[in-house]
Design brief:
403 residues; 34% helix; alpha+beta; eight-stranded mixed beta sheet; 2 domains; globular; D-Amino Acid Oxidase, Chain A, domain 2
């Protein structure tokens, strides 16, 4: 028999899980809710290891969840930060086209931004690039003033405080190891003992496909991509006032190596995107056999690898050869030098890959009876978290009550 019983259980203590727990408690103040996190601390992986960008919603295909929830979530995030005294800056972002072939892609991003309701996005020529970023060069650029920067660990901590203040329990070191179906709701086998719930929402990030497989759902698989950052030495931080981004390759859901001035004044450069051999180990040579075997066993991975192998090889080369990494940066910030790049942190992106080899580009939420699974929520999920939580709660309400 379960040791404990709750009305609602949220799996995952990242920013999406915390926002979802908060949203459920706001809708049902008397509900008995627990949030389960397998690590000893919250926001230990994607939520706490990103560069802190508040995305505007300019990139995403109109009509997608990413497009709608990023714009809505950004506005909600800023209100949340204001309410909790969390510092942020709307420093803006410059997306720079340096080659003739990139200008058409830049115009498409501009079109998407306007369609998505992103305010103030402006297409500018080379004469105005240096007005925003004196060290940048390019043929054309987009200026996106609504992009900003924040410390998402501080946001996660404030969300956790709200969950606890509303009567929710946050149980760390509670890895979910199995899910047993029953008429009254699932029973979760955890490292802290069995827990019963009438409804479950799984926001398990890098482990979301494994949690979904526990309840019989495995249509997508997570393929982890490691992103390594460099940090600019203090004497080189002047090269950006805000953020400088390249025009991303539209085939991929990654934004390319860029420069970001963080809330603490540091400037991070990156991340790249290379296949990771472990889902939650961050060294360049870290390998977890179970994780690597899961990637290699997924047919979708091989289909993607065959389709994009040239890009993969180029990313690996740039990951291991600093001058190649530097070369990518100097296309739009030519004054950077090798000595300006200091080793920085790494993060791992949970990228869902379909069986046909496509990289899932939108947020993916699956309703499976009493369990709602979030199966793809990489960037801009941190920006979008409060809006994603509303979307999840709406779907859960409909699935659980029929309303």
């Amino acid at each position: 028999m379960p040791d404990r019983t709750f009305d609602r259980v949220v799996i995952g203590g990242g920013i999406v899980g915390l926002a979802t727990a908060r949203e459920l408690l706001r809708r049902e103040p008397a509900t008995r809710l627990a949030l389960l996190e397998k690590e000893p601390e919250l926001a230990a992986h994607q939520s706490g290891r990103n560069s802190g960008v508040i995305h505007s919603g300019v990139y995403y295909k109109p009509g997608t969840l990413k497009a709608r929830l990023c714009v809505e979530g950004r506005a909600e995030l800023l209100r949340f930060c204001d309410e909790h005294g969390i510092r942020y800056e709307l420093s803006g972002k410059l997306i720079v086209a340096v080659a003739e072939g990139e200008e058409a892609a830049l115009r498409e991003i501009f079109r998407r931004g306007r369609a998505n309701g992103v305010e103030g996005v402006t297409l500018i020529g080379p004469e105005r690039i240096r007005e925003h970023e004196p060290a940048a060069v390019g043929r054309a650029a987009l200026w996106v003033p609504t992009t900003g920067i924040v410390d998402y660990r501080a946001v996660a901590a404030a969300l956790a405080d709200e969950v606890r203040g509303a009567g929710g329990e946050i149980l760390t070191s509670h890895r979910v190891t199995g899910i047993v179906s029953r008429d009254g709701g699932p029973i979760l086998e955890t490292a802290g003992g069995p827990i019963a719930a009438r409804g479950v929402i799984a926001c398990a990030g890098l482990q979301c496909d494994r949690v979904a497989a526990m309840s019989g759902r495995a249509d997508l698989r997570i393929v982890p991509f490691r992103g390594d950052y460099y940090v600019l030495r203090p004497a080189a931080r002047h090269v950006t006032r805000s953020m400088i981004y390249p025009v991303p390759d539209p085939r991929f859901p990654f934004l390319g190596v860029h420069l970001t001035r963080r809330i603490d004044g540091e400037v991070w450069v990156g991340p790249n995107a290379v296949l990771a051999f472990a889902r939650e180990r961050y060294g360049r040579w870290s390998i977890r056999p179970r994780d690597l075997a899961a990637t290699l066993a997924w047919r979708g991975f091989w289909r993607a690898a065959l389709r994009y192998w040239r890009t993969g090889v180029a990313e690996m080369w740039r990951d291991h050869v600093r001058r190649a990494y530097l070369g990518a940066l100097r296309r739009y910030v030519p004054e950077l030098r090798a000595e300006d790049l200091l080793p920085g942190p790494s993060g791992i992106r949970a990228q869902a890959v379909a069986r046909n080899g496509s990289l899932v580009d939108d947020f993916a939420i699956l309703e499976a009876g009493p369990i709602i699974h979030v199966l793809n929520a990489p960037s801009p999920a941190a920006t979008s978290a409060l809006a994603i939580a509303r979307e999840i709660a709406d779907r859960a309400e409909q699935a659980w009550t029929g309303r």
